[in-house]
Amino acid sequence: MTALPRQEPAQYVYLAARPDGRRTMGLRRARDPRHLTEQLRRDRLVPLRTWTLPAWAPGGGGRVSLKDQAELHTQLAQLLTRSVPLVEALDVTATAVAPRTRPRVERMRDLVASGASFADAATAVALFDRVTISVYRASERTGDLGGAARQLSITVRRQLAISGKVGTLLIYPVIVLTISVVVTVFMLTFIVPRIGQALESGGMVLPWFTKAMMGTGIFLRGNALLSTGVVLALVAGGVFARKPIGVGLGRLARRLPLLREVLLAQESARFFTVMAAMTKSGITLADALGVAVEALGHPTLRRQIAGLRKSLIEGGVLRQLIDSVDALPVPTRRLLIAAERAGDLESAFDTLAGDLTEELDRRTTRLLAALEPLLIVAMFLMIGSLLLSIMIPLMKSASQVGL
Predict the structure, then answer these.
(1) pTM score, two decimals?
(2) What fold is seen in the domain 66-158?
(3) Is domain 159-403 annotated with CATH 3.40.50.300?
(4) Alpha carbon of 166 to those of 160, 259, 367: distances in Å?
């Protein structure tokens, strides 16, 4: 069977009329404008105008969200294990996912109905990543598509848990720092200049630090449009240069105490989650390692796992190769070696995936506890410096009055 061409739906912004005469705007993913029109009419909407988002725009392309993938795998597992035909299962699944994912599932249903394999159809519509496609392709050879969907559902929900923990780790500092920046900008542009000017009008000689803060605040307030433009330009530059910036931040994070342990636990949990899904689908260990290593973002762990796979293919002894992967903790390596001797690596991968997810939860909690005092220091440096610019001249004035 020849491979189907990859056809990724585009993202559209639409303006449509509702049945009550009001207008509404939204985002939809569709193969083409005609397909978008069909979707809107099914929802009793009359399209007025549509715009195609570029692929680099947020929401303009990319993978299906993990939440939608989990729902899709779960629905397929429930239906296929009850002997529901694949085309009907996909038809039901299309109603359970988010509207932006529905056109891809519908397109895949049409391809399967026309004779394509499930894995080829999923590849054509860019529904899953390579790891998931490999698992489904192997399960089609063994005739256990429902079992593969069940295992992938567990895998994706574990990945959702990992992503949720990392998201929790990031949200708290971002909220605190955002509030601190807003308060700092407000004080710098309005409070400090007014108090400083009032002190100067009273004949007080201000120190250089207070004058510098006053000058900065007056400049920002008098050039609000310029300042806003500079901020927007920096944000736009950060968006376009997000890949090199992300690489640089990743290198820095892997060198910081506590944070590097969290990142290693996250990458290890993801790796063993993928390995558990692939080995349970009957994929050979070497092939599973070749695909799973692509899910790793940790350079050292990725390099060592890739070296293990290469040496394994060349005839190396697995237990000796496992012991050479020193990026993994010693207990993890010992468990893998014991499982290899017992011939039960599949269960070991599944156990390690669960254990490392719990370990990630514990390390995330510790890191959050360590971040709290650091955030307090950062808040003091931003807001406290402004307070000091006001308090220093007031304390000098008080001491002079006391003399």
Answers:
(1) 0.66
(2) Receptor-associated Protein (1.20.81)
(3) no
(4) 10, 11, 11
